[in-house]
Write a structure and sequence with these properties.
- By secondary structure, this protein is of the alpha+beta class.
- The protein has 21 helices and nine strands.
- It has helices spanning 3-17, 46-51, 72-90, 111-129, 132-144, 148-167, 174-186, 188-199, 204-215, 235-256, 259-304, 306-322, 328-339, 344-348, 350-365, 370-384, 389-399, 401-422, 449-474, 478-484, 492-498, and strands at 24-29, 33-38, 57-60, 64-67, 223-224, 227-228, 427-429, 443-445, 510-511.
- Helix 10 packs antiparallel against helix 11 (259-304) and helix 11 (259-304) crosses helix 18 (401-422).
- It is globular and about 70 Å long.
- Keywords: Cell membrane, Kinase, Membrane, Phosphotransferase system, Sugar transport, Transferase, Transmembrane, Transmembrane helix, Transport.
């Protein structure tokens, strides 16, 4: 099947399972997920969605999110949008709500029941995450997530250019590659301002216009707080603050400026007032904050080293569950702006390594549970590439102890990378979003690419082994083994009586939760 046909087939399989075109109110996607706004959540067939071959899992948050994986989601989303437009034109009737599962389908605990437990945990966590602070962090994430593809592309080009420069190859081409790699980062403040205004309900282009002041070379002729400003001072943090201010100024103008003058006065006052505050206040303050972030990150890893890495790698998955990981996105971006790479992401990526090691141990500890083993086999390739949601919410978190031991694996992997940072070998990523093996093309450091790759690979190996050992020996109680280490193969009489296999004999894909990066 051609790639286009495959993507359209995936979109066509998903659409009726989310209630049809009329039930879809909005469509977007991030690095790995198709994010849908739905009018009626009851029309969604979660289990049937998880059975779609390309679907790795589902997440219910402020939007309904279908995990398709990097690359796939960018190809399926346009096809899905086209199908929704076609469906609305023909006004199809919404699909009926899924029937309740038959409790007699199975007596033993299966991957399907694990997924249900994961969904329940996810729903409870969603309620806890619906605080004003966490909703604000989610809005911040919505500003930066659309920038990730450009960060990745430019980051890989930067790595390629650095390799060619070090080898002395293609000297006539490397300046062009440098321009491609650096152009986006030089203007990233403008894109942040645009997305910020859009997210907070203002006119996006006005947010971009105010943020553009920060990177305009002419600010070097301006003094503020007794210091001469530098182009780019304040970076993405300054752009974020400037655009938020512009939104509030614009909304104030919309309320008080007469309609006849609105088209002239509102944009002018928005740029003028926000621009003056940005130049004579925000750029200096945001610049100090950005410098403090870089200084603190360097100090943390140069002095804390293994201990800091151990804590960061071990607690990242709980941070994701609490929704607090979104606060790290502007920090990563600020570090990339300042230093060319973020030293935090490779350490945090070790949490995924611990998860992979834990899943491998669960696979071996439950040899009779074909359903859970099938889930692990199908989700493991994605886990190795840094998409860990199916393993987290389909396997380790519902089981309980394996989630804790997975965090232990992440802690040891993070400690390994942190130790080398303390010894002077910085390991960083030139972009945010990818993790696991997918992060290799984006690695950068201060002691050569070979050393950087070796340290990161060593961290992954330590995370895999530590997660596996901790889970294999400490991840299961006797009761847990008795409950889960049972066969899920349906008896022939069960299939004959119901016309379908017992619950858990199908796909084991699970509900998922936010991972970045992401």
């Amino acid at each position: 099947m051609a790639t286009e046909d495959k993507n359209r087939a995936t979109a066509a399989a998903i659409l009726p399972l989310v209630g049809g075109a009329e039930n879809v109110s909005s469509i977007a996607h991030c690095m790995t997920r198709l994010r849908l706004g739905l009018r009626d959540r009851s029309l969604v067939d979660d289990e049937a969605l998880k059975a779609v071959p390309s679907v790795m899992g589902v997440v219910e948050d402020d939007t309904y999110q279908i995990v398709l994986g990097p690359g796939t989601v960018a190809r399926v989303t346009p096809e899905f949008e086209r199908l929704v437009e076609e469906g609305r034109a023909s006004a199809p009737a919404p699909a009926p709500a899924p029937a309740a599962p038959d409790s007699s389908d199975a007596t033993a605990v299966s991957a399907q029941e694990l997924a249900a437990q994961g969904a329940a945990l996810k729903a409870r966590q969603k309620a806890k995450n619906a605080t004003p602070f966490k909703l604000f962090l989610r809005r911040i994430a919505n500003i930066f997530v659309p920038l990730i593809p450009a960060l990745i592309g430019c980051g890989i080009i930067a790595g390629l250019n650095g390799l060619l420069v070090n080898l002395g190859w293609l000297p006539s081409v490397t300046p062009a590659l440098a321009a491609m790699a650096s152009g986006f980062m030089a203007l990233i403040a403008v894109f942040v301002g645009y997305n910020t205004a859009k997210e907070f309900g203002g006119t996006p282009i006005l947010g971009g216009a105010v943020a553009a002041i920060i990177v305009f070379p002419g600010v070097a002729n301006i003094d503020a707080f007794g210091q001469t400003l530098a182009p780019g001072q304040g970076g993405v943090l300054g752009a974020l603050g400037a655009a938020v201010l512009a939104v509030y100024v614009e909304k104030w103008c919309r309320r008080w400026v007469p309609e006849a003058l609105d088209v002239l006065v509102t944009p002018t006052l928005t740029v003028l007032i926000s621009g003056l505050v940005t130049i004579f206040g925000l750029m200096y303050v945001a610049g100090e904050v950005a410098s403090a972030i870089g200084t603190f990150a360097d100090w943390l890893l140069s002095t804390g080293g293994a201990g800091a890495g151990f804590l960061l790698g071990g607690f990242f998955l709980p941070l994701v569950m609490l929704g607090l990981h979104q606060a790290l996105i502007p920090i990563h971006t600020t570090l990339i702006e300042q230093q060319g790479f973020t030293v935090l992401l490779p350490i945090l990526a070790m949490a995924g390594a611990g998860q992979v090691g834990a899943a491998a141990a669960v696979y071996l500890r439950l040899p009779r549970n074909e359903s859970i083993r099938k889930t692990i086999k199908s989700a493991m390739p994605a886990g190795l590439l840094g998409v860990g949601e199916p393993l987290i919410y389909g396997v380790s978190l519902p089981l309980g102890r394996p989630f804790v031991t997975a965090c232990v694996g992440g802690a040891f992997g993070g400690g390994f990378v942190g130790l080398f940072n303390q010894l002077g070998d910085s390991v960083g990523s030139t972009a945010i979003g990818p993790s696991g093996w997918a992060l290799f093309p984006l690695l950068d450091g201060n002691h050569g690419l070979g050393t950087t790759i070796a340290i990161y690979a060593g961290g992954l190996l330590v995370g895999y082994v530590a997660g596996f050992v901790a889970t294999y020996f400490f991840g299961f109680s006797k009761t847990l083994l008795e409950e889960f280490n049972v066969s899920q193969e349906p008896a022939p009489s069960t299939v004959a009586a119901t016309g379908r296999p017992a619950a858990g004999s199908g796909t084991g894909d699970s509900a998922a939760k936010e991972p970045a990066g992401v």
